[in-house]
Amino acid sequence: MKKAILLALLASLMLSGNCYAQGSITVSEKALIIPPGDDSGHFYAKVVNEGDAPIGVDSGKLVLFSANDEILVTSDYVNTYPSRLVLNPGEYTYMDEFLWDSALQNQTIGDIKFSIESTDKGSEAEKIPCEAVYEINGSSSYDNYIHITVTNDAEETRKGYYLVAALLDTAGNLVYVDQNQYENVGLHAGSTATFSLYIDKDTINHFESSGIQIGSVDAIVYYKAD
User: What is the reported pLDDT for 15?
Assistant: First the structure.
């Protein structure tokens, strides 16, 4: 009798846990690049669903403070790519926000506040297996790229892939994010193509002047049906 009651209680707890399953968005990494003397730069972030249910990622809110805790720049629309992306439990993605404001010039950045909310209007996207390599030849060269190879395993032609790529330094820290969509490039069923994301010279100069050594690349490819 006691065993039956215990089993019934455990079943009730399991059902209760399923009813209250929910996603949880966490900002696991963030980075800021503003070249010395410049009034523009990039903010990068990695966000993870650490919950136990799918969740839509809404726009993030970014606030940059000076060394004296004065607000320098705010941005209320730091988005995933594609926007409002739904992340399954354990999944992650990267975010990139271009910043351009005279308040950034010759300033020492103090605190960085970045918060992100969930949305019930998330956009489902299929993750496509891919392989990525980086090619960095230094600031004296224009041949600095992230190459992402995608194979279309579907039975129909697909186009409009969303590409998200990140570079990590030798310590595993996030140092660069790029995003792009090739709307007019279609892949026939079973075919493979390599897309190249250009790394601009300002970024390469920053790596060299800061002593950043690239250790690895991470890439995610999404496909959304029309």
Answer: 40
Q: How far apart are CA 93 and CA 133, in angstroms?
A: 18
Q: d(Cα 33, Cα 31) in Å, to the nearest integer? A: 7
Q: pTM value? A: 0.87
The domain that holds 72 is classified in CATH as 2.60.40.3230
Range of the structural domain that residue 66 is part of: 25-119
Whether 150 and 204 map to the same domain: the answer is yes
Give strand pairing partners of 176. Answer: 167
Query: CA geometry: angle at 145 spanning 140 and 147, to 5°?
Result: 155
Residue range 72-94, pLDDT digits in tens: 999 999 999 999 999 999 999 99
What is the domain count for the chain? 2
Q: CA–CA distance from 144 to each of 12, 161, 224 (Å)?
A: 57, 22, 28
Separation of alpha carbons 99 and 144, rounded Å: 22
